[in-house]
């Protein structure tokens, strides 16, 4: 029977009488944005085993990058849709700003409620 570490793609190296996990802290040059950091915090607090498995297998950084990129795309889609129904920016500036801020807040609220994690 394979351990959870092996099921997630981890490997071991035999050193003397012991098997030690092959761990690496391979990172990317991509800086994790707001949504990737929020996902990391969520995993640490609520999904500790998933966070540990991603970290041990070296897939945490790429997972966080993917989350960040997809969340940015979701936000862009919300904003594009909001621009279609927004009041005229030239004549109703304050209403336009309020409308766009509301669209961004709605997109972030959906993300924070876990909508992203269920629809990817």
Automatic annotation (TrEMBL):
InterPro entries: TnpV. It holds the Pfam family TnpV. This is TnpV protein. It comes from Qingrenia yutianensis.
């Amino acid at each position: 029977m394979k351990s959870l570490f092996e099921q997630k793609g981890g490997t071991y190296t035999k050193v003397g009488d012991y098997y030690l996990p092959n761990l690496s802290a391979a990172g990317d040059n991509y800086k994790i944005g707001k949504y990737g950091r929020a996902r990391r915090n969520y995993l640490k607090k609520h999904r500790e085993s998933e966070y540990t498995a991603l970290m041990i297998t070296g897939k945490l950084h790429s997972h966080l990058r993917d989350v960040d990129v997809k969340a940015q795309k979701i936000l862009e889609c919300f904003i594009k849709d909001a621009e279609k129904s927004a009041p005229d920016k030239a004549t109703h500036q304050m209403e336009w700003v309020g409308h766009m801020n509301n669209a961004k807040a709605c997109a972030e609220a959906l993300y924070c409620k876990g909508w992203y994690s269920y629809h990817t």
